[in-house]
Write a structure and sequence with these properties.
26% strand, phage-related protein like fold, alpha+beta, 28% helix, 5-stranded mixed beta sheet
Amino acid sequence: MRPESTTVSLRTDLSQTFQEFNDTAAALKFIADKASPVFESAEASANFPVMKRENFQKNSDDARADGAAFNRIVGEFGNGTFSTDEHGLEYPVTDRMRRRYATFFDAEAGATRILWYKMKLNRERRVAASYVAAGLTNHNVGTAWSTVATADPASDIQTGVETLEDNCGCDASELSLIIPRADFREALRTEAIIEQAKYTFPGIRPALLSKAQLAAILGIKEVLVARGSYDTAIEGETISMSSIWTAGITYLVLLSDPGDPLEVPSAFRTVLWTANAPELPVVESYREEKVTADIVRIRDDTDEIAPAETDLMAYQLTNT
């Protein structure tokens, strides 16, 4: 516990600042940029056509009788929509604050770091919420992964792989697994994964398998471990940490790469309105003389969407 005092003495001889939170490391735990790849749009809201899977998967009789016309088919198109909202936070850096702490740190740079992290955190929460809001059908694992002797995470996930391959025509090598930290660790402790690791990565301790190595065992594109958390308590209350992504719920999803056009299949996307926010996020500052401060602002203008038919490109798996 840090000591608290109502009397503050600035020690210019130390000229260092102790930081209670490693925002750089914590931000690396966020997966929103991959879990909901950005699509840049010139419009704030729009409808877009969806070429439905039925156009490809439904059987069409191509037999032709002598002298008869060829059978004709008509494509079916759906309609998708998005509408972006602006998000942003400001931090006033007063002239007094800047001068007071000038020996220790750049107050404006410090304010920017705080704002940048909070915006990243809020984006992570919105993306996680978009997965919940998608209303995906739940599938329970065969045996809870905590039952290490008989659980088989690879088999559970393979069922999802085959389902998505049939649903949207993708290949297993295009799929990503979003898995909460606790479930990732449980999977690595199961005897089924340990046995596979012996032959795929001989000599390595299965509990130390990396995300890329687990992806190789599963035969998929990548594993994204959801490790982000935040304090749900209001200012002044005892800290109460909560995971952003719900423990026990894993998602197998087809995801595009960030920056891909909308036509590239992806279960989830973040639409960025570039006319108002050319970057994600935008960092700005302006002067406000009435409070003798430079105001640092970070903002974006986005909508987190699930453009595909429910369950078409995403498979929800619950580990209970």
